[in-house]
């Protein structure tokens, strides 16, 4: 049985093994891996998640700081200048005297406090670790979503480009059919209805072409917004991607992997840990808090700069414990326990959703593989039917309507093939994301299916 990394990479590794070799070019079009790396720098959603992760990681340091010793320095300087005038009467004579006094004092104090027991601080530290783990999983999820966004828009451009090429070819074919019908009418071998039918099909092909051009332009703009600039071109897909059986072949195995590895489930699990740590912190407010404290005080100064000097060193243990808080702490604890129950239910919901998404991803990937095989066969069948109908039309065995139908079916099958190819690749990435396994290695594996000698949209503007 395949497990671990072997199991994880089986589907995409098969794609690498059958990928076409592509020579290096002096100025290669942008590949899938290039697009992803550029998105890492320019995608605002991913940048926001990265900043949130960096901020959340600081919660560990904040929580640890409450368990570490703290040292404070206090310093003061005092000066008091005083002047007194005394008046007295002796033997009927009034006399006065003036006295002054100057007071100077400089004081330094260093205090140290080391928590010996603080359930509140322990809970805060545990909460910080849980929050840091949660934001890390949130970033992992954002990174996987970024891969899907890049791949989806990259594939969207390529699919639109291939659809446009098919629409152009169809337009050219319909133009030739219309010209042949008009020429036949001119020499009297074609009826007016044949010209009208060919004209209608040509106009329909023109409408399809206009829509295809618009879809390509929109898809290019969507990719440019994600990457921060419009690429000069994209590396195209080297033929039809190999359709492989999914491994493992049972959806239950994919569901189990999702429960174990999904970042959505992991975030919900860490949220439970966070709320439980908050309960501990609140309980700590009702428990005794014990600190070791020490201080050193240096005082120098006195009246008339007398040079008085004193030093004082003190240390000991302090204990504090609330006796009565009016029920507020009990209410806070009850609120925190309710938050734990809420987080537990959210975890259960996340597990169910992850299981469903994994099954859906498996079924979608399996369906996309079957569709790709069927559509690829349909293209060959449509090509054979078109060629046979062309020959039959030349021999007088098929009508022009039958020929036009065969032409349109062939080009429609080409557009369907473009959607099926990229839909299949996207479904593989979506399945890896559903089970929490999608990362840069998967992008690199799929990038091997694209070649710089097969650039897309190079002639899109003609």
TrEMBL record:
InterPro entries: OMP_efflux, T1SS_OMP_TolC, TolC-like
Domain of life: Bacteria
Keywords assigned by UniProt, alphabetized: Cell outer membrane, Coiled coil, Membrane, Signal, Transmembrane, Transmembrane beta strand, Transport
CC per GO annotation: cell outer membrane; efflux pump complex
Localization terms from the record: Cell outer membrane
Keyword Membrane: yes
Signal peptide span: 1-26
One Pfam family linked to the record: OEP
Entry's Gene Ontology molecular function annotations: efflux transmembrane transporter activity; porin activity
Coiled coil: 125-229, 329-360
Region (Disordered): 78-98
Keyword Nucleus appears in the UniProt entry: no
Record's compositionally biased regions (Polar residues): 87-98
Family recorded in the similarity comment: Belongs to the outer membrane factor (OMF) (TC 1.B.17) family.
PANTHER family associated with the record: OUTER MEMBRANE PROTEIN TOLC
Protein name: Outer membrane protein
């Amino acid at each position: 049985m395949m497990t671990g990394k072997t199991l994880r990479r089986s589907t995409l590794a098969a794609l690498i093994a059958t990928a076409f070799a592509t020579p290096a070019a002096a100025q290669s079009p942008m590949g899938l891996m290039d697009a992803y790396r550029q998105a890492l720098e320019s995608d605002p959603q991913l940048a926001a998640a990265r900043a949130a992760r960096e901020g959340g990681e600081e919660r560990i340091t904040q929580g640890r700081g409450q368990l570490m010793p703290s040292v404070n320095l206090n310093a003061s300087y005092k000066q008091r200048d005083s002047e007194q005038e005394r008046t007295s009467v002796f033997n009927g004579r009034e006399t006065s005297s003036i006295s002054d006094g100057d007071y100077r004092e400089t004081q330094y104090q260093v205090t140290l406090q080391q928590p010996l027991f603080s359930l509140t601080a322990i809970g805060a530290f545990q909460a910080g670790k849980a929050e840091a783990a949660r934001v890390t999983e949130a970033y992992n999820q954002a990174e996987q979503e970024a891969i899907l966004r890049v791949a989806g828009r990259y594939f969207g451009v390529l699919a639109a480009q291939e659809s446009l090429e098919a629409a152009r070819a169809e337009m050219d074919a319909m133009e030739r059919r219309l010209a042949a019908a008009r020429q036949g009418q001119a020499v009297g071998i074609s009826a007016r209805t044949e010209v009208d039918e060919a004209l209608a099909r040509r106009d329909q092909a023109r409408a399809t072409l206009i829509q295809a051009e618009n879809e390509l332009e929109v898809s290019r703009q969507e990719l440019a917004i994600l990457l921060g600039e419009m690429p000069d071109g994209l590396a195209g897909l080297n033929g039809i991607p190999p359709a492989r059986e999914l491994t493992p072949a049972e959806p239950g195995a994919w569901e189990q992997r999702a429960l174990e590895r999904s970042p959505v489930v992991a975030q919900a699990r860490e949220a439970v840990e966070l709320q439980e740590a908050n309960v501990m912190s609140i309980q700590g407010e009702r428990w005794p808090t014990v600190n070791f404290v020490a201080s050193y005080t240096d005082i120098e100064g006195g009246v008339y700069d007398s040079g008085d000097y004193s030093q004082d060193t003190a240390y000991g243990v302090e204990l504090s414990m609330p006796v009565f808080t009016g029920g507020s702490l009990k209410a806070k604890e009850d609120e925190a326990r309710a938050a734990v129950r809420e987080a537990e239910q959210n975890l259960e919901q996340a597990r169910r959703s992850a299981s469903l998404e994994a099954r859906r991803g498996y079924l979608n990937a399996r369906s996309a593989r079957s569709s790709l095989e069927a559509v690829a066969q349909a293209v060959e069948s449509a090509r054979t039917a078109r060629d046979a109908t062309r020959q039959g039309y030349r021999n007088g065995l098929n009508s022009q309507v039958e020929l036009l139908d065969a032409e349109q079916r062939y080009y429609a099958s080409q557009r369907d093939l473009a959607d099926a190819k990229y839909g299949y690749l996207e479904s593989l990435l979506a399945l890896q994301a559903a089970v929490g396994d999608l990362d840069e290695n998967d992008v690199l594996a799929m990038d091997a299916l694209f070649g710089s000698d097969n650039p897309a949209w190079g002639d899109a503007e003609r």
